[in-house]
């Protein structure tokens, strides 16, 4: 079996490394010292740089100006972005683009996708539902009216909503079908209430009061929301992996220089064992991530549907990233809590990623349901 990445995927990875090499994780005020949001908007300068490097069009088909790559390529770029805590809606916009490409009308694709690829148009995704602990599509009611849909409901913790041109959000019809609607935040009936995320970013509670969307702005195939949710979850695992790798590198560098009793603390058995355990966590996170990304990219048959591989990846990502940052804080001692040092920022982002799209327990329950429904040979 060949576990190497394709040439095009490697090219995307190298381009990402070049772009993110100039990004500093402490470019905004510390979330620990800021009572509100650390910034009002995402990093627009970095967003333009990503567009110039053709990294916003990775998943877009060539006829719309993109590279036509798969979610594996997106995950490679996301992993690099998390190493420097890049403040951009790369996951949300990329996942929305792929979903619109697969399920949008020809007119919608022609209008939206080229502008996403050039960075001109920013699309975010609502996936938290009303409380963050329920199926997101159940938080919004959708009813047809002539050639339009009328939306009522609430989506919480929508990332980058204040800076987005469109929000792709799930809703449910009277007969229980899930649909997706592409809604501009400026549309009549849409209200954004600011929320502060765990990592200090400005999110939004999106309220919809009789919001009217056209049929062209609506994706009615139930598979669209399923695909979008799996891609968002897998991308979150890629972010967790990149962040964890950066934190373990920071920890190795610190413990190799910090001396106690005349020796680097990295040479002490208790320190080495804890670091080795976290390295094993990261290897497991990587293996399950690439398995999940491969399944949703190829739709290859398996003992379980692709949702099973995604659930396993998110279980490892949520539990693994928590253990990695906790061990890092422990091995850094009091220095790890110094707000002049970046580790506390990584800890805040890690907690955000751990809970995004559901904590480990939620995915363990989902995996149990899948195992109950599919008899394994």
**Morphology:** globular
Structural class: alpha+beta
**Order of adjacent strands in the largest pleated sheet:** 1-4-5-8
Termini separation comes to 22 Å
Explain what this protein looks like in three dimensions.
- The chain has helices at residues 7-20, 44-52, 71-83, 90-103, 106-117, 222-257, 269-298, 306-332, 343-355, 360-373, and strands spanning 123-125, 140-145, 148-159, 166-172, 178-183, 190-196, 202-214, 218-219, 259-260, 263-264.
- The protein has 377 residues and is of the alpha+beta class.
- A four-stranded mixed β-sheet has the order 1-4-5-8, covered by helices on one side.
- A hairpin with a 2-residue loop joins strand 9 and strand 10.
- It is globular and about 80 Å long.
List the helices and strands and how they pair.
Elements: H1 7-20, H2 44-52, H3 71-83, H4 90-103, H5 106-117, E1 123-125, E2 140-145, E3 148-159, E4 166-172, E5 178-183, E6 190-196, E7 202-214, E8 218-219, H6 222-257, E9 259-260, E10 263-264, H7 269-298, H8 306-332, H9 343-355, H10 360-373
Parallel strand pairs: 1-4
Antiparallel strand pairs: 2-3, 3-7, 4-5, 5-8, 6-7, 9-10
Helix pairs in contact: 1-3, 3-6, 4-5, 4-6, 6-7, 6-8, 6-9, 7-8, 8-9, 8-10
């Amino acid at each position: 079996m060949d576990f190497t990445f394709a040439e095009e995927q490697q090219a995307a990875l190298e381009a990402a490394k070049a772009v993110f090499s100039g990004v500093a994780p402490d470019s905004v005020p510390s979330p620990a010292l800021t009572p509100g949001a650390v910034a009002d908007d995402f990093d627009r300068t970095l967003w333009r740089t990503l567009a110039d490097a053709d990294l916003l069009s990775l998943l877009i088909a060539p006829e719309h100006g993109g590279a036509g790559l798969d979610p594996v390529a997106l995950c490679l770029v996301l992993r690099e972005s998390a190493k420097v805590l890049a403040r951009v809606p790369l996951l949300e916009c990329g996942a929305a683009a792929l979903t619109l490409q697969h399920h949008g009308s020809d007119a919608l694709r022609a209008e939206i996708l080229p502008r996403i690829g050039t960075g001109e148009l920013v699309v975010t995704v609502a996936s938290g539902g009303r409380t963050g602990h329920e199926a997101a599509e159940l938080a919004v009611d959708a009813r047809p009216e002539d050639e339009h849909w009328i939306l009522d409901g609430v989506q919480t913790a929508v990332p980058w909503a204040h800076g987005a041109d469109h929000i792709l959000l799930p809703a449910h019809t009277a007969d229980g079908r899930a649909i997706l609607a592409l809604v501009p935040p400026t549309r009549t009936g849409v209200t954004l209430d600011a929320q502060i995320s765990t990592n200090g970013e400005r999110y939004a509670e999106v309220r919809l009061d009789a919001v009217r969307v056209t049929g062209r702005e609506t994706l009615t195939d139930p598979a669209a929301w399923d695909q979008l949710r799996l891609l968002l979850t897998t991308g979150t695992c890629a972010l967790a992996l990149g962040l964890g790798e950066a934190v373990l590198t920071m920890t190795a560098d610190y413990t190799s220089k910090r001396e106690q009793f005349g020796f680097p603390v990295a040479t002490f058995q208790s320190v080495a064992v804890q670091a080795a355990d976290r390295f094993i966590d990261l290897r497991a996170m990587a293996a399950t991530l690439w398995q999940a990304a491969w399944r949703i990219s190829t739709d290859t048959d398996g003992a379980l549907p692709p949702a099973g591989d995604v659930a396993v990846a998110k279980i490892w990502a949520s539990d693994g990233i928590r253990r990695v940052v906790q061990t890092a804080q422990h091995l850094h001692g009091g220095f790890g809590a110094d707000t002049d040092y970046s580790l506390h920022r990584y800890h805040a982002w890690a907690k955000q990623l751990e809970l995004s799209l559901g904590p480990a327990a939620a995915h363990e329950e989902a995996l149990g349901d899948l195992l109950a429904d599919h008899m394994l040979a």
